[in-house]
What we know:
Layout: H1 14-26, H2 34-43, H3 61-76, E1 82-88, H4 99-105, E2 109-115, E3 119-128, E4 131-135, E5 150-155, E6 159-164, H5 165-168, E7 185-191
Antiparallel strand pairs: 1-7, 2-3, 2-7, 3-4, 4-6, 5-6
Amino acid sequence: MKNPLRYQVSEYDCGPTSLLNAVSFLFEREEIQPEILRNIMLYSLDCYGKSGVQGQNGTSRMAMMFLSRWLSGAGEAGLLPIECQYLSGKQVYLGENSLVTDALCRGGAVVMRLHMDGEHYVLLTGREEERIYLFDPYYMEENPFGPEIELDLQHPLKYNRIVPFACFNREGTQPYSLGKVEEREAVLLFDTRTKLTAERTIEYFI
């Protein structure tokens, strides 16, 4: 059974929440081992705030890179049929030749760092033409973004925002922009049993 995706419980935990949501999106509740949950929480929230308190500046890129590698290792060890790939810099954009959109077309999920009143992690779960379906763990009941970005609370297992490609590819700090190219990052995640490949379906094209 799949669980509804969850919202962050503080101003700081968008990173671990989005990673946990990726696992929930890809796998049945009964498959997810406690070690997965424990380590995602243990190795995230590692950035110190201005007051010197750990976690007040969220989760670092280094922690996300480590967790993506740890999750892939967990997959190789048989803990969960998961595969991850960490992307950074020029690899992170939305477009026809993007590894991000390719992952979504192959049944994967993408945890991505972007801008939302500061740096913020969300989970991308699907694509339709030049629109991305994503789950933003920051709960809102009203849409402050205008007509360009849709707020949709009717699909708790998959998404709560619909965002055009163009919003992501901006280099500024507007809502859902990826920002400066050199600072971008994303983690691709797959259930290896359902990941679409050329061998598994004639509908998959590189």
